[in-house]
Automatic annotation (TrEMBL):
It catalyses: N(4)-{beta-D-GlcNAc-(1->2)-alpha-D-Man-(1->3)-[alpha-D-Man-(1->3)-[alpha-D-Man-(1->6)]-alpha-D-Man-(1->6)]-beta-D-Man-(1->4)-beta-D-GlcNAc-(1->4)-beta-D-GlcNAc}-L-asparaginyl-[protein] + 2 H2O = 2 alpha-D-mannopyranose + an N(4)-{beta-D-GlcNAc-(1->2)-alpha-D-Man-(1->3)-[alpha-D-Man-(1->6)]-beta-D-Man-(1->4)-beta-D-GlcNAc-(1->4)-beta-D-GlcNAc}-L-asparaginyl-[protein]. Belongs to the glycosyl hydrolase 38 family. Its cofactor is Zn(2+). It is an enzyme of class 3 (hydrolase). Binds 1 zinc ion per subunit. Homodimer; disulfide-linked. Its EC number is 3.2.1.-. One of its GO terms (molecular function) is mannosyl-oligosaccharide 1,3-1,6-alpha-mannosidase activity. PANTHER family: ALPHA-MANNOSIDASE. One of its GO terms (biological process) is mannose metabolic process. This is Alpha-mannosidase.
């Protein structure tokens, strides 16, 4: 049961594929129904994926805002068809049953009165004493009539909220049926009740009761309804209950809780996707060429499967949500870390195999030639990169993998041992570069930051073919080139760099597209000028916090202290100003870094013509230090602008990176009821401008006031919020979060239908930058003196796909019999992303191609090295083949849709 708020569609689908195929391969069963009774709120992505998986029955949901529960019961609309926002024909309709009561346990599901239902829990395990084991009385001939009367009253009330007069009553709870005794007790006692009820139809108005599956229920529902159900669009966030003190409690805290784990989850997702693509090409290329490496690649498949399953496990609604006890979260993190390490090893070997020269298989088998450029020793330590030693006789090769099906430019950073270097691409052409300082913490208070004397950051912009491996050579140069100019406050310089003191007044960074102004005192952004239009827009960044309400705000719930509801904690006011301000400016990028005690904030502007020059790249490192520091603190970053996005304010947030949802601020439910899950994108807009924030991991976002977007960064709550975890959240770790900020111009035409009927989408630029943020190029280092074993470059596809098509995965299937081995087929998952044509109409993305039809591949497109292919469209989990496709250029994907194709490699 995946969480539905903080998960990304890649991991949600991958979990379904792994699960459905495992069940089929091991149990011989095809999944028929969905069952999601414990996620804290529900979104439209799961119903869509189930529909596209050929789930023919329906799906069951449970946890909705108590007001939705009441409305569904009052209007008898709890059985409905969930339709996607963009769907105008109903082809995405998924039958959904909303369980009418608040919880799925026996005491909460037989009817509206838990004090009655608890008497029908017949578990009595020797030595176990609970409230239900004390109350429950076994059924016999003397009490069966009275017990049946009371139970049927509850069942009748449950059925009364539906016009179809049929009820689904789950019989269980967490940690149940762990003793065979319980199964016998529940079954035996309920069968006595059912037999009595069914034998006395006159007494119970013809009712019939029996055990059944969800499929049985949906069949009865469809038969009684003649297939006619109401339709619904949208989602069910924010979830709220009234368990505590009889007042609403909004479950919006878990959108952000434990951000370090949410970032770790995305890191594994990133690594796994690249690994899947590289592995599919490498293993099938080796099979076709009958190379010895195929055995080693097949041996790696078990590691790949473990990485998939570890990622799938973490999508659980008490894992990625951060709502498990600290020792359980530690175990999750170890599994994520294992997956990341496994993926890194498989990637390196796959790259080595793909680039190995023909007939030169001996060295790659016996020698590790390609290694990742970065590593981490434990999950709770930051990623580190070793500086490459460069000398005149020994240049170093760096391999860059573009995991996207389109051509792209990508900023690449590596560490080098000296500044006198140049970069040459695989064709021998010199690539422009920039040398930045690497900063080390100093032990002296007077100079808290100092430049490293043995390590330098090399930045270059790589131009990459689609699905390609490209080698760049870093050579020794006679003199330093592309050195950044550095301005800094309170730092120690290095003789190779020109270091200037900070000037008085505001700070300005600019490129061809924009000028960005920063406040001279705080170092934080204050405005942006669009050079294309000349319009200056007030866009301010600030950091503040809410004081958490003790015993009310916790891992699940977000609730600011009601006594301080209108008073934000100005966390930066605790500091006289930033302890350090650094400006680094060079030919490829300019950036400003400000260091406060709780957050280090960096904003970077890229020069050049690539899509990365259209936005502001932002990094925050949040460090709450050791508790009890920053106790009951809910830290957020806020962007304030002059955008008039309505009154009440309207904000758009994404749903699992799949589509956008419109959110209208409702003041009466407080800020906690207006925080929404954001997994990739949030934006606000008026008739002229749109302010977009792209995120690299799930977090809560709100648009509480017009012109504002705020994103929760981290939360520390010392107390439990009484929703099941049993402890506070105090295991915060220093966390790096990454963003893109876009200020875009809107035109009046090209947006499709107008007004409330228009489906809102990000811009094409935003989609491109989001994909680069989530799935950056993978960088590898070639070990010294082994370069001669490898080819300089390969492209795994000979033509790019349209830039609105995202290759979500190319995933090798498991052999159904020998499940530790790969099969000779893979699932190609494609997503055609919707985009808003009104945004930045005059800007053309370099290397971007679009098509007017639904086609994905140009005529004659081939996957390099894979030989003949057999292609068939399938359901999204690959379980049910549909129509065959003769060639790649016959593959089609409709806008907004996911399409999955089973690709079998013939030779």
């Amino acid at each position: 049961m995946t969480d539905e708020a903080t998960t990304h569609i890649y991991a949600m689908l991958d979990q379904l594929i792994e699960g459905h195929q495992w069940v089929k391969n091991n149990l011989g069963v095809n999944i028929k129904t969905g069952w999601s009774v414990d996620p804290f709120g529900h979104g439209p992505t799961v119903p869509y994926l189930l529909k596209k998986s050929e789930i023919t029955g329906g799906t069951v949901i449970q946890r909705l805002h108590y007001a939705w529960k009441e409305w569904f019961a009052r209007t008898q609309n709890g059985d409905f068809l969930w339709r996607q926002n963009w769907d105008r024909t109903g082809h995405t309709d998924t039958l959904v049953h909303n369980m009418p009561f608040s919880i799925y346990s026996i005491r909460g599901s037989c009817g509206p009165h838990p004090q009655v239902c608890i008497n029908y829990d017949f578990r009595k395990v020797p030595g176990e004493f609970t409230d239900y084991s004390e109350l429950a009385v076994f059924i016999d001939d003397q009490n069966v009539k009275q017990k049946a009367d009371v139970l049927m009253d509850q069942y009748g009330r449950t059925a009364s909220v539906s016009p179809y007069n049929v009820a689904l009553i789950p019989l269980g709870d967490d940690f149940r049926y762990d003793h065979d005794t319980e199964w016998d007790q529940q079954y035996t006692n309920y069968m006595k009740l059912f037999n009595y009820i069914n034998a006395n139809k006159d007494r119970y108005h013809g009712a019939e009761v029996g055990f059944g599956t969800p499929s049985d229920f949906f069949r009865a529902l469809r038969a009684r309804s003649d297939g006619q159900f109401p339709t619904l669009r949208g989602d069910f966030f924010v979830y709220s209950d009234v368990f505590s003190e009889g007042r609403p409690a909004y479950w919006s805290g878990y959108y952000t809780t434990r951000p370090y784990w949410k970032v770790l989850d995305r890191e594994l997702e990133t690594k796994l996707r690249s690994t899947e693509i590289l592995y599919t090409f490498a293993v099938n290329d080796a099979r076709r060429k009958k190379l010895q490496t195929v055995r080693l690649l097949e041996r790696n498949y078990e590691k790949l499967t473990r990485a998939r399953q570890n990622l799938a496990l973490f999508q659980h609604h008490d894992a990625i949500t951060g709502t498990s006890k600290s020792f359980v979260m530690n175990d999750y993190a170890l599994k994520l870390f294992e997956g990341i390490q496994n993926c890194a090893a498989i990637q390196s070997f796959a790259v080595q195999c793909l680039l190995s020269k023909s007939g030169d298989s001996g060295a790659p088998l016996s020698t590790k030639i390609v290694v990742p450029d970065s590593d981490r020793q434990t999950y709770d330590q930051p990623t580190y990169r070793l500086a490459l030693n460069i000398d005149k006789s020994r240049p170093r090769n760096v391999i860059v993998f573009n995991p996207h099906g389109r051509r792209k430019t990508e900023p690449i950073k590596v560490l080098v041992s000296e500044p006198n270097v140049r970069v040459v691409d695989s064709d021998g052409s010199v690539v422009r570069h920039q040398i930045n300082p690497v900063w080390n913490l100093s032990e002296t208070a007077e100079q808290p930051l100092a430049m490293s004397k043995v390590c330098f950051e090399l930045l270059f912009i790589a131009v990459l073919d689609p699905l390609s491996l490209t080698t760049f050579t870093i050579q020794k140069a006679p003199n330093p080139e592309g050195l950044a100019l550095v301005y800094c406050k309170n730092c120690a310089g290095h003789s190779v760099f020109t270091v200037k003191p900070m000037r008085l007044g505001d700070i300005q960074l600019e490129n061809d597209h924009m000028q960005v102004l920063f406040d001279g005192k705080t170092g934080l952004m204050s405005s942006i000028v669009d050079k294309g239009t000349g319009v200056s827009q007030y866009v301010n960044i600030d950091f503040a916090a809410y004081q958490a309400a003790q015993l009310h705000s916790g891992a699940y719930l977000f609730m600011p202290d009601p006594n301080l509801r209108d008073t934000e904690k100005k966390v930066l006011d605790d500091y006289p100003g930033p302890s350090t301000v650094i400006i680094t400016s060079g030919p490829l990028s300019s950036e400003i870094t400000v260091v406060y005690g709780i957050v280090t904030h960096k904003v970077r502007l890229y020069h050049g013509k690539g899509v990365e020059s259209k936005g502001l790249y932002v990094e925050n490192v949040v460090d709450f230090k050791q508790p009890p520091k920053n106790r009951e603190t809910e830290l957020f970053m806020r962007l304030s602008s002059g955008i008039a996005n309505g009154e009440p304010a309207v904000i758009y947030t994404d749903s699992n990176g799949f589509q956008m949802q419109k959110r209208v601020t409702v003041k009466r439910v407080g800020i906690e009821g207006n925080y929404y899950p954001t997994t990739t994108t949030a934006y606000i807009e008026d008739d002229h401008h749109r302010l977009t924030v792209l995120v690299n991991h799930a977090q809560g976002a709100a648009g509480w006031e017009p012109g504002r977007i705020e994103l929760m960064l981290d939360r520390r709550t010392l107390y439990d919020d009484s929703r099941g975890m049993g402890e506070g959240v105090v295991d915060n770790k220093p966390t790096l979060t990454k963003y893109w900020i876009l200020l875009e111009t809107l035109s009046d035409d090209g947006g499709g239908s107008k007004g409330g009927d228009r489906v809102s989408n990000p811009s094409l630029v935003a989609n491109q930058l989001s994909e680069s943020l989530l799935y950056p190029a993978e960088v590898f280092v070639v070990e010294p003196d082994t370069e001669h074993h490898l080819r300089p470059a390969i492209a795994m596809i000979d033509r790019p796909v349209p830039c609105d098509v995202h290759l979500m995965n190319f995933r090798t299937n498991t052999d159904p019999v020998f499940q530790q081995f790969p099969s000779p087929s893979a699932l190609m998952v494609l997503h055609r992303k919707g985009f808003d044509c009104r945004v930045d109409k005059g800007y053309r993305i370099p290397e971007c191609q679009l098509r007017r039809d639904r086609g994905v591949f140009d005529s004659g497109t081939v996957f390099t090295g894979l030989g003949r292919l057999q292609i068939a469209r399938t359901t999204v989990t690959g379980m049910h083949p549909m129509d065959a496709v003769d060639r790649l250029d016959q593959v089609e994907v409709a806008p907004m849709e996911l399409a999955v194709f089973n690709v079998t490699f013939i030779d």
